[in-house]
Amino acid sequence: MSYFTAVRLYSLVELALFTALMVVVIGGLGDDAKVVLGWSHGFGWIGLCVAVAFGASRRLLPWPLLAATVSPLGPIGSTLGLEYLARRRRRRRPRRRATAAG
Predict the structure, then answer these.
(1) In a domain, 27, yes or no
(2) How far is CA 54 from the centre of its chain?
(3) 10-28 pLDDT, tens per residue?
(4) What is the domain extent for residue 16?
(5) End-to-end CA distance of the chain, in Å?
């Protein structure tokens, strides 16, 4: 698994944590759940920022992705940025033609 793929998956997990936290907070579904999800998201977001900064310093990820990650959008910004980069990478790859085995 590449570093890009690992950070992309981590960003999706962090987005899921953030979404769960928002559902619990908005729905008033329990203080214990709020505390656990809040701390998990907080440390997860810090870890995501560190992972993106490390990738950017190694030129594996672009610096604007770090700006999207540390923005108020947090895991939403990083996930959108990573999905944009993934689609751009797929478009740049030359497509291989299928050859008939003969």
Answers:
(1) yes
(2) 14
(3) 999 999 999 999 999 999 9
(4) 3-91
(5) 33
